[in-house]
Amino acid sequence: MRRYFGxxxxxxxxxxxxxxxxxxxxxxxxxxNPVQTMLSRAALRAEAVEVMYGYYTRAFGLDVPIWQQYLNxxxxxxxxxxxxxxxxxxxxxxxxxxxxxxxxxxxxxxAILLSWYAGNHFGAFAARTKWxxxxxxxxxxxxxxxxxxxLGILLAWVFGIVLGVxxxxxxYSFALxxxxxxxxxxxxxxxxxxxxxxxxxxxxxxxxxxMRNMIIYELExxxxxxLEALGAPRRLVRKYAFRNAILPQITGLALQLGVIAAxxxxxxxxxxxxxxxxxxxxxxxxxxxxxxxxxxxxxxxGVLLANFAIDIAYVIVDPRTRLGMTGEAA
Amino acid sequence: MSLQVENLTVYxxxxxxxxxxxxxxxxxxADGEIMGLAGESGCGKTTxxxxxxxxxxxxxxxxxxxxxxxxxxxxxxxxxxxxxRFKKISIIPQYxxxxxxxxxxxxxxxxxxxxxxxxxxxxxxxxLKRRLNLVELSHDVLNMYPIELSGGMKxxxxxxxxxxxxxxxxxxxxxxxxxxxxxxxxxVEMLVGFRDRGFVKSLIVITHDISILYQIADSIMIMYxxxxxxxxxxxxxxxxxxxxxxxxxxxxxxxxxxxxxxxxLTGIPGSPPLLLDPPIGCRFRERCPVAFEKCLDVPxxxxxxxxxxxxxxxxxxKNAQA
Amino acid sequence: xxxxRSEILYFALRNNKLRVGLTIIxxxxxxxxxxxxxxxxxxxxxxxxxxAQPPSSExxxxxxxxxxxxxxxxxxxxxxxxxxxxxxxxxxxLIGILVGFTAGYRGGIFDEILNMLTNVVLVIPTLxxxxxxxxxxxxxxxxxxxxxxxxxxxxxxxRAIRAQTFSLRSREFVDLARLSGMKPRKIIFTEIAPxxxxxxxxxxxxxxxxxxLAAATLDFIGLxxxxxxxxxxxxxxxxxWGALLLGMWWWFIPPGVAITAIVGALYVxxxxxxxxxxxxxxxx
Lengths: 330, 322, 284
What we know:
heterotrimer, A: 330 residues, mainly alpha, MetI-like fold, 2 domains, 13 helices, C: 284 residues, 0% strand, elongated
């Protein structure tokens, strides 16, 4: 157990280290004076430019040796200081991001978990059930091949514009201020539904297909044949096959996190949903490099945390990792 | 009569047509009999064994009738066979090493399997433990995952599990091939012990290793290219075989214990026919030193002496003259 | 061996998934090459003075807000999509093969280091990296984009190929080659690679699809090529200029349909191929 988690932890630390380094490195690789370039592109008032220029030169620490710049960057990071946003001047980047994070959790957590659960169960059900395999499963292929933003656009167009039953922008009605009431909660759910649905559907297709292809292998495995030979009902054979087929799907979830993060990003853009994805777009358009750096770091941290959670889940489900780790068996 | 098989014919479906892997097999296995089933790889012995318990595509039931304890087995019906599997007929598969689900504890798996067959696990548990003692497995295995067991332990666990419902007929499919010599001996002795204690009534033991059959089998049935060649008591098959194939097979063993499939049968020129389009008549004809025109017809599997069945025209003639 | 090959061909020709998938891809491929002859505009030409207009005989897919011909953009976008798929997917597969083969075959310290590297890159959300790089680059072409995508997409391929090499390496024929004194590189290319060809093909197909989707995502948030058109960019412009609110469906439907159809067809063909190569998966 310790060896397994020790290894994982090392990977996560290395990853974080590498990500932060990339984050630090890139603006410094750009030709010319990054601060100058950045400020000239951002449309700010003249007096603000002056303030910002001084601030950024200090913040980037371009006047000290390069190794010190690097250490300073880490130091600031550990103090939760990611700089000041240009786009939302003068708010600190950390604060801007922290305001967006709850929306991401609210959107992503249900979409990921529900689609994973439903997709796996549906895929297992459809496998070797000929009519389902031939009718509904092709839909799975289409869904998983759909670019996230395009499904978002389609849903927004059909349900938002043509039918007009769902709003297509924001996290709640512009007419409301956030407060605790049924009207507000309804508005939040109403705005949440379409982005949720488009994320859910694309992921659902992927999991269903993955499980369908996986469980077919498992149903042909020796232990499945043995159960059949001992007269176990179809239900039990499938249950056991499912338990084994789910393992690669858990790993698959970890592998997909990056893609899912990207999908969430564009979905938020389509629906102007105020999560980190939407922030990134604004940051890019406004050349707000501190904000881009900050968002990048937050995505990394989110993905690392999710990975860690998945590692723990995997150990719980697969006895082999557990046993292999304690060294009790070969 | 424990097992009665009549005219059982099973083909394998492939792209190029049916592979005629088992052609009109007719034989019986008596109560308490341990019957060895031997023949080269691809002679149809595994097809025969599997079609008795789990006949799945690409296998295709063509015709035949199987009776176990005077009850017909619906071998062609995957669903209906479930009533008989485990309780009346059971198998120790060739792949015993991987037969148990890797992600369930063995005890839990056993209990789920039993409950799914409407058998009370709690009530069966004392008997299960008694049998674990018998094969020298600690009761702790029930709390373990299969990967925690050694190969020999898994083999014994599967033996106990497969016979837990005291089936009338047990098929042991190459149970020793994955084991070292000393475990092989232990395993086959356990099989005999199971029969002696009445855990199973009769046994079909499929193997490459005739020396094992010599140790434990009451009778041996020899197959060639999907057809039954000869069945008789072990002594007779080893010392006085009648079918030319059996004779060559036994003679080609330098000494008892060599696995004949590992070497081409040097004593018999030619190789077994392709079963996709087998020759008419006796399938051994082309390699047979004593073949004659009569062999263009399929020889029936006839009892020429008490409990001695042979499918060979030449032997029938000899028998008629005698 | 010959028998086996003809069997694979037999199944390949009769596998519906493979047939459907390949037909769709072929259709778009032909369209990519024939398309430019059907249009006499450039993607960014302002051809329709009336601005946006639904599909008509004059403008098959309609025109954008600015009067650009959607069909022309679509055809040129298709070319970009295939380019990204081949270059990005190909590069991703190639790096994956190099890393995976080496790690799987050499084992030991090579494996430790490469595996660690793979896992680290695997965890980093690649889009975030692409995003940062793209955000700082002022001029971006489709080729640059493809190369960046290929350089970040390889880890899972490396992992899969490593596992496959591990299992092949312990097979008899590889032992035989090693005993007969063959050099590792030669063993990899003459003994292991041919046996993995089918697997590598499957990996490439998935990489192709992944690269197309990654490019579409980048393009959509405005980090795509600055000097060309692509299907993702079309969607980007459509959403940016309110095609949704104004109901200009002809602007955003075609690029999405094309991407979905191409990637979907690839996935379906992939499963079809898998069935062809693995007899166990075929349904009788």
